[in-house]
Design a protein that fits this description.
five-stranded mixed sheet; 1 helix; six-stranded mixed sheet; mainly beta
Length: 315
């Protein structure tokens, strides 16, 4: 068998949302320091979440913007989960990494600067959206942050109020001892970009991603904006029957990340097919874009080992 069952249904995960690409929440998500709580495992011991990157931002009333936080990694680190820091106004965060060290001097310096939504490094690691709670990978699975590489946290902030808004958004990583690492992972955003149009009424858009290497999928979650209501993601093996990955309703404000119940093996040339369903109550057609007023159609899919095909994959 080339695959094992890995289906997430709407019956099991009602109102699950995306890892990335979401809108401004009406309430702030407390940081660990504000809540005074540290997630613990079943045995009650504190989990080793460490700050990876965070940045300050400020916005005028009714505006939105992107803020890039860059940080060079001092020593090798393995991260097996993420915990977002998402105060009011945090639209989403995307964490990526530039692992090349030969031309490190040509990279932008560490620190926080204003940027664009497309400013991401080649390899995606993780991120968060509205309502994203801490999430963990299966045992032995982690993303690697090599010494000398530079992580990039892209923060999209949106101020829907009539008053200035400031905040500090970031993300923490769950440290995993190198001796416990069995698989190194990567995040791939599979879906539709070119020609994405959301007409008035209920419509469905379909995107595909052709995988370039053998890998194993262990998570896949919807990525849409405010008009998204449902997503179906499936694997189309070369010469085989479709394998369902996700079939669930999408909630704009509840974007909890879930692992698949079991892993799915894929091979070079297989495709990921993503159906995004929207409810557009307005009179205008909405197209693909970075803004919270635009739309997206992606399945945030974690794989191991890294297939390194650019992070975003679409035809």
């Amino acid at each position: 068998m080339r695959t094992t069952s890995g289906f997430v249904s709407s019956r099991r995960l009602v109102a699950c949302g995306a890892l990335l690409g979401v809108a401004c929440s009406s309430t702030a998500q407390p940081t660990p320091a504000e809540s005074g709580k540290t997630p613990s495992d079943a045995g009650g011991s504190a989990k080793d979440f460490r700050l990876l990157a965070q940045g300050d931002w400020q916005l005028d009333p009714g505006s939105e913007g992107y803020f890039c936080v860059r940080k060079t990694i001092a020593e090798d680190e393995f991260v097996s989960g993420f915990r977002p820091i998402s105060p009011l106004g945090t639209h989403h965060t995307v964490l990526s990494i530039d692992t090349s060290t030969a031309d490190a001097g040509a990279r932008p310096p560490d620190g926080t600067t204003q940027c664009q939504g497309v400013d991401n490094s080649p390899l995606l690691l993780g991120g968060s959206g509205v309502g994203t709670t801490p999430y963990e990978f299966p045992p032995g699975v982690a993303v690697k942050l090599p010494a000398g590489s530079q992580i990039l946290l892209n923060i999209h902030a949106f101020n829907s109020s009539d008053q200035p808004l400031t905040g500090t958004s970031g993300i923490e990583g769950l440290h995993l001892d190198p001796s416990a690492v069995e698989h190194e992972a990567e995040l791939v955003e599979a879906g539709k970009v070119i020609g994405l149009t959301v007409a008035p009424g209920r419509t469905t858009q379909t995107g595909t991603c052709t995988l370039t290497k053998d890998a194993t999928i262990f998570a896949s979650n919807p990525h849409m904006h405010r008009l998204g209501v449902h997503q179906v993601a499936r694997l189309l093996p070369t010469g085989g029957a479709p394998v369902p990955l996700v079939d669930q309703d999408y909630s704009f404000d509840e974007q909890t990340f879930h692992m698949l119940p079991s892993t799915v093996a894929v091979h070079a040339g297989d495709q990921l097919e993503v159906d995004c369903t929207y409810e557009n109550d307005g009179a205008d057609t909405v197209v693909f874009g970075q803004s919270s007023k635009d739309e997206m159609c992606f399945a945030a899919t974690y794989v191991y080992p890294p297939i390194k095909q650019g992070g975003f994959c679409f035809q």
